[in-house]
């Protein structure tokens, strides 16, 4: 009997996706660095008591950076299989992919500066008023 949604197939897909996420953080150094940075940002957000909208922006940036790193890793691994030896076009693909991650990271840093910088400046001036 055919079902519109095959639950077992969907669960299997989620398992494969989870295996990919685990492999990303287990084997990829850049992903580990991004994950540590994300944890530091979450701790800073808790400490600075950012509001709901700021959390939404920060968590979106974290997700974008981690997703970009996952896509970059997938592209690099595929490129290595397609062309194990050096090839200028494969190098260009890898450079573009890494550049995309860098762009996302730069924008995430800008968003972080806008949110955390504002909070820190408010804290400094609030404390300066009563000192």
From TrEMBL:
One of its GO terms (cellular component) is plasma membrane. The active site is at 69 (proton acceptor). It is found in: Cell membrane. Gene3D superfamilies: 1.10.287.3610. The chain crosses the membrane at residues 33-50, 96-117. It is a multi-pass membrane protein. Its main location: membrane. One of its GO terms (biological process) is phospholipid biosynthetic process. Its cofactor is Mg(2+). Pfam families: DAGK_prokar. Substrate binds at residue 69. Keywords: ATP-binding, Cell membrane, Kinase, Lipid biosynthesis, Lipid metabolism, Magnesium, Membrane, Metal-binding, Nucleotide-binding, Phospholipid biosynthesis, Phospholipid metabolism, Transferase, Transmembrane, Transmembrane helix. ATP binds at residues 28, 76, 85-87, 94-95. The keyword Translocase does not apply. One of its GO terms (molecular function) is ATP binding. Mn(2+), Zn(2+), Cd(2+) and Co(2+) support activity to lesser extents. A divalent metal cation binds at residues 28, 76. Belongs to the bacterial diacylglycerol kinase family. This is Diacylglycerol kinase family protein.
């Amino acid at each position: 009997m055919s079902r519109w949604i095959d639950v077992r197939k969907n669960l299997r897909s989620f398992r494969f996706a989870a295996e990919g996420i685990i492999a990303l953080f287990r084997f990829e150094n850049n992903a580990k660095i991004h994950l540590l940075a994300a944890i530091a940002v979450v701790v800073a957000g808790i400490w600075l008591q950012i509001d709901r909208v700021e959390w939404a922006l920060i968590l979106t940036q974290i997700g974008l950076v981690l997703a970009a790193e996952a896509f970059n890793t997938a592209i690099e691994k595929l490129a290595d299989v397609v062309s194990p030896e050096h090839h200028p076009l494969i190098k260009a693909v890898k450079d573009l992919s890494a550049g995309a991650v860098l762009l996302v990271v730069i924008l995430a840093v800008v968003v972080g500066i806008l949110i955390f910088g504002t909070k820190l400046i408010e804290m400094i001036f609030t404390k300066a008023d009563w000192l």
